[in-house]
Design a protein that fits this description.
Elements lengths: L2 E7 L3 H12 L9 E7 L8 H4 L8 E5 L4 H11 L7 E4 L5 E2 L3 H6 L8 E9 L6 E4 L7 E4 L18 E4 H4 L13 H11 L2 E13 L13 H16 L3 H22 L19 H23 L1
Parallel strand pairs: 1-2, 1-4, 2-3, 6-10
Antiparallel strand pairs: 4-9, 5-10, 6-7, 6-9, 8-10
């Protein structure tokens, strides 16, 4: 079996049929070669008849129910129990969708035996129905070798699990994630990237992310708990040498983080890079853009030197 799809499910019954439909409607790819791990993370109201309706169109759906430990707990559960059968594994959140060409496009990278195969994503606003495209900044389609010298160049701002496929032997060594909190996708992506030897990039939009769905981590009410979760991820990124990525993560949450941080804490948060992120200017995205352009120039210099 080539692909395993992990679907963490919790209170997204309104959207999960679209997610499953996007798997069912894959073109130019035989779904008999695909395992779906549908993990119910403690939702007592899930209607199992939803999965039953797909038994013919998606033949290999394995259903598991566990107590609620949030997204990171689902990933821990899958790895600890050795549930993955595919050579490659990906995570498709139960409110996200794939394009009909996703698996076919990703399969083009299989002959490279890359540690990771990734594609692009669009963010969809469910209120305005507008969309925004995000590139993963791997620059060109094809296989990219990764070394300690250039690894940081591949640390994209788009750490969401959507359209990221990992070789199972790599993914099964993912660091144990803290359970009961959000934003653990940051650690899954970067932990695997830091151990990967190469990445195959498909420069196509292969998935859609609902960025402002009620109930997701981005739309959570601001509280000390949310502030602490974001601090954990900012410090994680800074700790592995990604200060510019930490700056972008903060800028994504804009002034809400700064206001709420000051509400619960008196001191500025200082990173290894010696930047005070609480009192950083409003032009955070501009600063990140400068850092990104510097990465791209360094990447081109490395490629030019290797040729």
């Amino acid at each position: 079996m080539t692909f395993t799809i992990i679907i963490p499910f919790y209170k997204t019954q309104e959207y999960v049929k679209e997610t499953l439909d996007s798997i069912k409607n894959q073109k130019k790819y035989d779904l008999k070669d695909v395992q779906v791990l549908f993990i119910n993370d403690g939702d007592e109201n899930f209607d199992l008849s939803i999965l039953a309706a797909y038994k013919d169109s998606i033949p290999n759906i394995d259903y598991y129910k566990k107590h609620n430990t949030n997204w990171g707990g689902v990933i821990n559960y899958v790895i600890k129990n050795g549930l993955i059968k595919g050579t490659y594994v990906t995570i498709l959140d139960s409110d996200d969708t794939w394009s009909s060409q996703c698996l076919f496009s990703i399969s083009q990278g299989l002959t490279s035996q890359a540690d990771m195969i990734v594609g692009d994503t669009i963010f969809k606003n469910i209120n305005t129905h507008s969309s925004k495209k995000y590139h993963t900044y791997f620059l060109s389609s094809g296989l990219h070798a990764i070394s300690d010298k250039n690894r940081f160049l591949f640390c994209t701002l788009l750490h969401l699990p959507l359209c990221k496929f990992y070789k199972t032997s790599l993914f099964n060594k993912t660091v144990l994630l803290k359970e009961g909190v959000s934003y653990k996708d940051v650690e899954v992506y970067h932990d695997n990237l830091l151990r990967a030897k190469n990445v195959y990039y498909v420069k196509k939009v292969l998935g859609t992310y609902r960025e402002n769905r009620p109930g997701n981590s981005i739309m959570m009410e601001w509280s000390k708990e949310k502030v602490d979760m974001i601090i954990d991820e900012i410090k994680y990124l800074d700790g592995i040498g990604l200060s510019s990525k930490a700056i972008f993560l903060l800028s994504y949450h804009k002034n809400n983080f700064i206001v709420n941080y000051k509400k619960y804490y008196q001191e500025p948060m200082i990173l290894h890079s010696k930047l005070s992120l609480v009192f950083f200017p409003k032009s955070l995205k501009f600063v990140y853009k400068i850092a990104l352009n510097k990465r791209i120039k360094q990447y081109k210099d490395i490629v030019r030197a290797s040729n």
